[in-house]
Design brief:
The complex is a heterodimer of chains A (444) and B (87). By secondary structure, chain A is an alpha/beta fold. Chain A is built from 14 helices and 22 strands. Chain B has 87 residues and is mainly beta. Chain B has a single domain, classed as 2Fe-2S iron-sulphur cluster binding domain, sarcosine oxidase, alpha subunit, N-terminal domain (Ubiquitin-like (UB roll)). Classes of the chains: A alpha/beta (444), B mainly beta (87).
């Protein structure tokens, strides 16, 4: 049996390819419906090539070789005699499944950066605004400001505007001229330019206001303060206020590496500080019988995820990877690198936040408390600061704040965050919170 | 605020009656009705709504039919659900 974890583009591509041989395929996904964060089931929201998910969804539902387990949160994974055992919680009941081979396609979530007022209702990630719209047909608020950095801001803004939302504007931290640093990536990916033109036309159609080299540095619940910033995100000049009740702020993505980490798959730090898995040319991890595809091997978007999913499944069946697929992956990876070059996230955001602003949302730990753990209690790394302040010890298991806490401690102590620390804060021994009751009553 | 039509699922939130569309998450259904606070935080009693919207951040946790710590952004509304803010 081959188990595929995740039903986003990478997992669905892997499932479809894997089902072409005679092996039983199981797809386990935490969401109630397939598609991951990128494709939302039955979404009618306007967007570039938004209909190509249909064939993957129908394979999942109709192919007899695929068993699809939805709404299942895998909380632990162990190597056993017969393969890899995955323990999951579905509808409050604990169950497990053992597979000889596993393809991890666990995806990513938006990276969030704190600013003064980011804990107020109405501040969310672009992924949240997108999920509310595409997954639930709800427009997040009366007037929505889109901010942060990267091309993902465009489909979010356009999707909202097309659905009738009042979009207050797109505030992009960097200049589009940064793309001139990556001519090869642009040449190798002409389809990306077509996609960009599609969105530029939509931006014109919906009369969306786009600003560059700027960021939202604070929010009082009714309006956002915009500042001109440099490429390190340091404030150059406070400029204006924009009225809005929702701010969708996104700073790239953080892959979910937890399960692979638990299973011992080797991780590395990408050039932008993101922790990802080391895989070979066939998407094989460092551990036998585990392949990894999609964002967890480097943030690259849905196109790259689809290709990697196909390659992982072919490799899992011992089949040859066609050169065409290898080249397609190569050019998508070049584009992914160009994204990192064009939309870097510097540490200047640390100058946006007031001392009383929360950094850890779960445990409500403020910037002032984290700084005091360094200046008064002599914490010299994030781990020690965490023990003093509880930053990163809440229900999200540090998924939202731990990278930011590490960057703050590094700035306070005039150090760089080490690779070992980055890998440390990206991993957790239990993949999702589980109650002792569910654990004790679970069906094994 | 909802872009869709037809309200078919009835439920309560902190005792007040609400309606939503089948398949909608608790958070989406409440936000469509204009709710801006799903819970207040433990220590500083700050209002919280949805943040990541995809089940990662646990900012939106509520009590659903007596079961605590349910993520309102993931759990779909069901007829006669009794939802209360986490304490």
């Amino acid at each position: 049996m081959i188990a595929i974890i995740g039903a986003g583009p990478a997992g669905l591509a892997a499932a479809m390819t894997a089902a072409e041989s005679n092996e039983q395929v199981v797809v386990i996904d935490s969401a109630p419906r397939p598609g991951g964060q990128y494709w939302r089931h039955l979404s009618k929201v306007e967007g570039y090539k938004s209909s190509r998910s249909a064939k993957y969804f129908s394979a999942l539902q109709e192919n007899e070789k695929i068993i699809y387990i939805s709404g299942a949160q895998i909380w632990s994974a162990v190597h056993t005699e017969n393969g890899i055992t995955l323990n999951y919680l579905a509808a409050g009941i604990e169950s497990s499944i053992t597979a000889e081979k596993v393809i991890l396609a666990t995806g990513a979530h938006d990276r969030a950066i704190p600013f003064t007022g980011w804990e107020r209702p109405g501040v969310m990630t672009p992924g949240a605004a997108q999920a509310l719209l595409k997954g639930h047909n709800v427009i997040a608020g009366q007037r929505i400001l889109i901010t942060g950095t990267g091309p993902f801001l465009l489909p979010v803004a356009v999707g909202l505007a097309a659905a009738g939302a009042d979009v207050a504007g797109i505030i992009e931290a960097h200049s589009p001229l940064r793309w001139l640093k990556s001519p090869l990536a642009l040449l190798l990916n002409p389809q990306k330019s077509i996609e960009l033109i599609y969105y530029l036309r939509k931006i014109a159609k919906y009369k969306l206001k786009v600003s560059f080299n700027r960021a939202v540095i604070s929010f009082d619940g009714k309006s956002a303060t915009i500042a001109k910033i440099d490429t390190e995100l340091r404030i150059k000049k406070k400029e204006s206020e924009i009225d809005c009740d929702v701010i969708a702020a996104g700073w790239g993505f953080t892959p979910d590496v937890t399960l692979g980490g638990i299973l011992g798959c080797k991780q590395v730090v990408d050039r932008d500080g993101t922790v990802i898995f080391a895989v070979d040319g066939d998407q094989r991890s460092s551990v036998a019988n585990i392949w990894i595809a999609g964002e967890a091997t480097g943030i690259g978007g849905a196109d790259l995820a689809l290709i990697e999913g196909h390659i992982a499944a072919l490799s899992a069946h011992g089949l040859t990877i066609p050169l065409r697929l290898r080249f397609a992956r190569y050019r998508s990876q070049k584009f992914a690198t160009a994204l990192q070059v064009s939309y870097p996230v510097g540490n200047g955001w640390q100058g946006w936040i007031e001392q009383q602003s929360r950094i850890c949302r779960c445990e409500e730990v403020s910037l002032g408390e984290i700084c005091a753990s360094v200046s008064e209690l002599s914490a010299n790394d994030a781990r020690t600061s965490k023990l003093f302040t509880r930053a990163g010890m809440g229900m999200c298991q540090g998924r939202i704040c731990s990278r930011n806490v590490s960057e703050i401690i590094a700035s306070q102590t005039n150090c760089q965050v080490t690779e070992q620390e980055r890998i440390g804060y990206s991993n957790r021994p239990i993949a999702a919170p589980i109650s002792l009751g569910a654990l004790a009553d679970g069906i094994k | 605020m909802s872009a869709s039509t037809g309200s078919e699922v009835s439920f309560t939130f902190n005792g007040a009656a609400y309606e939503g569309v089948p398949g909608q998450s608790i958070a989406a259904a409440l936000m469509a009705s204009g709710v801006r606070e799903l819970r207040a935080t433990r220590f500083h009693k700050e209002p919280r709504l949805v943040f990541c919207g995809i089940g990662v951040c646990f900012d939106c946790v509520v009590v659903v039919n007596g079961v605590a710590n349910q993520r309102a952004c993931l759990v779909e509304i069901a007829q006669n659900d009794e939802i209360v803010s986490s304490k």
